[in-house]
């Protein structure tokens, strides 16, 4: 069975060239706009995507990078190869940092592209062969984490997503219970159908029944027309019942009937309406204690909790603190167009020392606020409104240390941009090849990590006798 590849480019000639050139090696799907690409991703589920940085007129900006972010978030096992013009190579480095597996420049050389595609297929095969596939990664859909408690959550989500069983998600406020529900929906066969959330604790009790089950015209004052409830809106999709512990007793009975028979009856209605919706419920309440107190039905608990997923608090996944903070810094930096370099060591110590009673939501809010208000390129404890965790002010680096760090960063960027080709990298930063080799040794860099398989490493004619 051929690997399916999606080619996204706004030039029809390139689409035709690659459709013809790769026929027989891959099952080729093409798209000329971002919307066509999104539709192909949903319907065709390609394993590999080649994506032009600029879709449409240059004035539209690097729309392909925005689409790359969506693919990395929603299709984590899909490998993306970015396409860029020779005058836009800085976009290639940005794309790699944002999750692309590789890149190549126009004009397209078919043999070079074949090598890059084979490498992407190989990487995808390795990830697919690992237990849990995407579970071994740091991101799973919109969930972020690499700690052992989160790996367990990823594994449970992946195993239950392909089924239709009801899932009960438990955890403190701010731990990401709705993100878990979203991941279950997005990873399952209902992904192209509606995901309908409702917060049962945020709606007055006298309106909750109508919101959930709908009502008929004239069934009560102000019922001027028949209205479908959330159950019907989620038909063939997923209904997420947040704060399920807040549902009053009389509605627990109606909810239990739906779980048993998959029918709903609108307020004021007489005819049952059959609905095919998967139920994912969540709460921060102790439902077992509520059962003992007679405030929650035991039979409903077992109907809802065929599978129970316990989302850990941020205190239980402290290994993820830095990863999450850096993820939010990158995300909100792009959203608010702020070019920030990272966190100071004092800020990282303050993050590690804080108790985080508001969990991930608190961390996200603090980082977003800091991104907006920060006056420096590095976020400090005061930007996060956190107390410094000992150590006082950070010592400045020595002038030589700062020079060495700047030199190393320039060297890494030059080698990355030129795929490890020493001759081109040396020319770009205006040093001789022997000097560049000396710098590589000085900073302990491995040239192999920058090279792409199948491409010349340094230019045979120019680099003969290179050290």
Could you describe the 3D structure shown?
There is one protein chain. The strands form 5 sheets. The protein has a 5-stranded parallel beta sheet with strand order 2-1-3-4-5, sandwiched between helices. The protein has a 5-stranded parallel beta sheet with strand order 9-10-13-8-14. Residues 131-136 and 459-467 have low confidence and may be disordered. By secondary structure, it is of the alpha/beta class. The protein has 4 domains: 4-129, Rossmann fold; 140-310, P-loop containing nucleotide triphosphate hydrolases (Rossmann fold), CATH 3.40.50; 315-379, Helicase, Ruva Protein, domain 3 (Orthogonal Bundle), CATH 1.10.8.60; 399-450. The chain has helices at residues 12-21, 34-44, 63-74, 90-97, 110-129, 148-161, 177-186, 205-213, 230-233, 249-261, 287-292, 298-304, 321-335, 345-353, 359-373, 399-417, 422-429, 433-442, and strands at residues 4-8, 27-31, 48-52, 79-84, 102-105, 139-140, 143-144, 167-170, 195-199, 238-242, 263-264, 273-274, 278-283, 307-310, 342-343, 378-379. It is 43% helix and 13% strand.
Assembly status: single chain
CATH topology tier name of the largest domain:
Rossmann fold
What percentage of the residues does DSSP assign to strands (E)? 5-15%
- Average pLDDT for all residues: 84
The stretches of 5 or more residues where confidence is low (pLDDT under 50) are 131-136, 459-467
Q: What is the percent of helical residues?
A: 40-55%
Question: Based on DSSP secondary structure assignment, what is the total number of beta strands?
Answer: 16
- What Rg, in angstroms, do the CA atoms define? 27 Å
